[in-house]
């Protein structure tokens, strides 16, 4: 992910873009980096896996609807408190302090540059920056945190509750979301004739409804790992997986 962003934004400080483009075409391994828009799905999968596995472990010892509701409220509050202080400090640093502490190829920056002006207008403490006016949102790279918070609040409680109530209900819910996410992504890409990810960033890349499929695959994996912790796989199956 870091390598992909370096290559993506490196052209802003490159003197001769034609030489850069010819080098990119010559080194075939760079294709892996230019398809890096799929890399965040790894973290969504891991996040869903850990969320489901840990929550099912803890909920197995909790009895009563009120206690389970309290548990989920604490999960959401804990997630919010863990992420928000660092997020807000970054916003404050970017909008108020960075213009006074600068040195490097991108500086000096005026206080009215787009990235700083967007943070002054459109910062969202409730993590809605992936839903509204993303092009002018504050800290665009925090779209991942917004998605993760939204999945924690909405998808995780519904899926785990359904799974513990009736296993088939949880599985159907997860598979439905995976299918829906794939169909929505296909529809948006097809109707807008998107061919490269950079063009479709605002419509596909950051939206919760196009990324939720991977998160649900992670949650299904977490459930399988919780229910069947001793599954033995042969070397061929491990290789395919």
Automatic annotation (TrEMBL):
The organism's place on the tree of life at top rank: Eukaryota
Gene Ontology MF term list: acyltransferase activity, transferring groups other than amino-acyl groups
Transmembrane helix listed as a keyword: yes
InterPro entries for the chain: Acyl_transf_3_dom, O2_lipid_transport_reg
Transmembrane regions listed in the UniProt entry: 42-59, 80-102, 149-165, 170-188, 208-226
Position of the signal peptide: none
The keyword Cell cycle belongs to this UniProt entry's keyword annotation: no
Pfam family, one: Acyl_transf_3
Keyword vocabulary terms for this entry: Membrane, Transmembrane, Transmembrane helix
Domain Acyltransferase: 2-232
Protein name per its UniProtKB record: SJCHGC03775 protein
Source organism per UniProt: Schistosoma japonicum (Blood fluke)
